[in-house]
Write a structure and sequence with these properties.
Mean pLDDT: 79
Number of strands: 0
Radius of gyration: 18 Å
Shape: elongated
Largest sheet: none
Oligomer: single chain
Strand content: under 5%
Number of helices: 8
Amino acid sequence: MTTLSLGPSPARRDALTRRIRLLVAATIAYNVIEAVVALTAGTLASSSALIGFGLDSVIEVSSAAAVAWQFSAREHTVREARERTALRIIAVSFLALAAYVAVDAVRALTGPGEAEPSPLGIVIAALSLAIMPFLSAAQRRAGREIGSASAVADSKQTLLCTYLSAVLLVGLILNAAFDWSWADPVAALAIAGIAVREGRQAWRGKGCCAPTAGSQACAKSPVR
């Protein structure tokens, strides 16, 4: 059952908008650095997992950029009008991520090549595992309060990046310590399934937040 709410006051909504802009900017900046480091380390170590992680960062940037575009509008009505487009971009980003991770995982499982240990990869994976949960949680809280399905969906993609960081870290450590090169791609396949589910929900505008009176995208979702 859907419960309508008047939502935050205009002053609080402006404060939340500024917070989301700041969080999205931080997410984009970090993911650009993460992509450069991961792609470099992956190339040096011939690690498909690290290269895939770097490409995931590029996809995360596109998702965050969609939210940044939506919240760049000064008028609340314009931001609401951009909501559906931003959600579609995020949904496609989720599905692109799922497709790449799945293909890369299967290739890693069936391919003859073996990745070399990568201390730099372990460092960037551990750093992402420490940073991403906080960015995701902060954006999710702000998105739910303001009633933005796109901000919440993007926070879920950031959270998915956290899962990938954990999988990558475990895979790199196991590969370095025990030569278990299969551990990372197996777990990555499970994460690809999660990405597909989140992408479908984002496309439908589901899994959002407590809806505001003027938010059409969130008003279709049940209050949780």
